[in-house]
Amino acid sequence: MAERRSHRDLRWWIAGAVVFLATFAGMVLVGGVAPDAATAGLSVAAASLVHLVARLFSVAEALARSEAEAVAMAGTGLARSTYRELLEEKRRVLAAIKELDFDHAMGKLSDADHRSIRARYERRAAEVLRALDEPASLHPWARALAETGRIPGEPEGGTAATEPSTPLRACPSCNGANDADARFCKHCGEKLAT
Amino acid sequence: MPISTLGTLAVVLVFLSCIATVAFSVRGVLLRSERWVEAGVQALHATFAAAAFASALLVYAFLVGDTSIQYVAHNGDPAMPVFYKVTAFWGSLDGSLLFWVLLSSLFASLAVAANRHRHRELIPHAVAVLGIITGFFAGLIVFMKNPFEPFLLEVPSKGRGLNPLLQNAYMIVHPPSLYLGYVSMAVPYAFGMAAMITGQVDDAWQRSVRRWVLFSWLFLGVGLVLGGLWAYEELGWGGYWAWDPVENAGLLPWLTCTAFLHSVMVQERRGMLKVWNLVLVIVSFLLTIVGTFLTRSGVVQSVHAFGEDPALAWTFGAFMLVIVVASFGLLVRRLPLLRSRGEMESIVSREFAFLVNNWLFLSAALFVLFATLYPTLREWAGMFVEWAARRWPATFGGIEPPTRVTIGPPFFNHWMRPVGLALLFLTGFGPLVAWRRTTPANLVRQFRMPLVVGSITIAVPAAFGVDSPWGLACFGLCGFTFWTIVQEFVRGVAVRRRNRPQPVWEALLGLFVRARRRYGGYMVHLGVVLMFLGFAGKSYDLERKVTVHPGETVQLGKYEVRHDGLRATTDWQKDMITADLTILRDGEVVAQLHPARWWYFQMPEQPTTEAARYMTIAEDVYAAMQDADMTTGWTRLALFVNPLVNWVWIGFVVMLIGGLVCIGTRREQLTDRVGGGHRG
Hints:
- The complex is a heterodimer of chains A (194) and B (680).
- Chain A has helices spanning 2-29, 37-64, 67-105, 111-133, 140-148, and strands spanning 169-170, 177-178.
- Chain A has five helices and two strands.
- Residues 156-165 of chain A have low confidence and may be disordered.
- The model of chain B is unreliable at 302-307 and 666-680 (pLDDT under 50).
- Chain B is α+β, with helices and mostly antiparallel strands and 680 residues long.
- In chain B, the strands form two sheets. In chain B, strands 2, 3, 4, 5, 6 and 7 form a six-stranded antiparallel sheet that branches. Chain B has a four-stranded antiparallel sheet with strand order 1-10-9-8, with no helix packed on it.
- In chain B, a hairpin with a 7-residue loop joins strand 6 and strand 7.
- Chain B has helices spanning 3-31, 34-64, 70-75, 82-87, 93-115, 123-143, 169-184, 186-198, 204-234, 245-270, 274-297, 303-308, 310-333, 350-391, 393-396, 409-429, 440-463, 469-499, 504-514, 516-537, 646-663, 667-675; strands at residues 542-548, 553-556, 559-570, 574-585, 588-593, 596-600, 608-610, 612-615, 619-628, 635-643.
- Chains A and B meet through helix 2 and helix 3 of A and helix 2, helix 17, helix 18 and helix 22 of B.
């Protein structure tokens, strides 16, 4: 849905550009006005007026929505943001560990300090990785979104992403859920038949 | 419908839209309703759309020359080139307020769109704060300074034109650049406030704002340096920084931003200085408002400008008071949450270097602020004493009322020089010491070579006859800091090549790619060193004020300046008198200079000075004409040799590139999202 919204934003921008060109061309060709800076200025004003109307419409639209709908829209964002934030956190922690090692190699950190700070970051990295690998720790929608690109309850064939959903498979030894193409169980490490 | 009516409607719409933004967001928070929160966000975007429409109308009014609008009549001129007609939009007070609102709502809209799904809980609060800030300026426009105000009685047929002093390439870029810097500080402030209101005072809000602070810092820097360059080329007194109140107003938030950019690293790494970082963001924002206030109300230059527009000044004063009370009130309430995780372990540590750096930056900002306002404060005190003496003659009758004094550049230079040099020292010292603590052996290893280089850079200029202790100290510290940066790069490359054999250039590039912030920061430091090299040159400059006739030659250090004659010319907007000077060195001609004086038809009583200079990497020969008599040919010239001055500009460009490296791109995160994981 976020994509849909950004597509709509893009449409408004395109509409603005079209209005600008149409006003400019109309005034020059039909109205017989000189194609000078003032005409361009007026066309910009016309385009921004269209943009303004679109924006006011968005406000009205947001208010006209029911609370449940608004929550549903926000929910996708929330789920997605949790997942994204985890990814970002992972990147940050790994980068911090690399930087720490680099500092140590350049002699700016004593061995003891290096060990203790690195241990702290490693713990954090482990937590993040586990959270990322553990679908249960995510909001159900986030899991569905991360795996299928759709949120549950959204009608099929809508304008949203229509990626086919990948079936999950259970691990024979621990019964944990794994991706269809997984070769090892991500919970217990057991080899899975391919 | 006339443009003035339509425009007024548009600015009223901006104002209403701000109110709606705040109301929707607050309601959304109170009811915990996503619907109202979303409406608030959309209203914020609508505010920008309305501001864009109003701005487009004003620009159109200038282009078409609609002199029924007072602002256009006062600042527009049909004869001006299109470029100046567009920039006349922000050329004066009313329009610049609209420009403020345009930028403020644009940044608010961009920042909220970028963080909409990242920090959901912060968003409604940040939106409300941004709405209040934009709304304040929109309110000023609607109720006090409407740029669309029409003439009520008779309409003049021709505009007066943009102030000719502003019709200059630097002056076109300089004010909007400072403006961008000022206005973008509202975003970090709004997120900081949102963090305090929600109680989520961990590092999340900072991740959203670090780039904005960098952005603000960059644009303030560009604005300040362009202002300096303009002063150097246009004002003709041979220098670039005179501690002018309006320039100081731009320097103040720049100083606190710099402090924030450093101290935020301590919070990231050690979980310390949380309160301090919030204070810095609040103070920086406050100083941008103070800056806008100082430049717009005319309080500092003269008390008369203040008398002309007391309402605007009082409104600004009230707004600043609200910001101070609200921000610091919240901060005090959230103090328990802001306790730091780590503590200072040693004086010889990175944290401590950062802390000293912060104290210096903040005290420099406070000093400049106080010294800038001191003449005005004294004048107010004088007015108060006079009033009190009339009211209570018995008590106050005998007191001599304080009068306005002038605080000149020497005073500022006297106090700021040691602060600047201390900061330069920290620039070299900080990056080399370790976090937490540094062992003596390590200290020796890190600082042996920089100290040697620093000593050489003191000894060499001293041998060449530089005798100013400040100048020598500055050269020495430049050498010291320069070498620490070189050493960092050399060691970084060595470590990378040890980990994996690779060519030097690849390792160097790898440093910038992998540790962008750190090595971008070093580049900024390198720029600072080069700028200080330029400042150091000031310690052995040369100045001569002479009166010469055509044909005469004067000696200026190792140069000779020959006066070849005067020319009088006229173009569409001004009369010009130009002197032709030839610069000789050892009898050889090295350059022709043409300093001039221009009399604009609009303001013949205020001629402008057009300085001319012969630039080399080592020094400038700079000539400005102060007076000339066409009948006798005598010319009063101010001649300068400014050593190393161009390094100030070169250093700034290096600093700018370093800053851009720090801002960087978001490419890494994109690959993460697409690839679904971190590689390496």
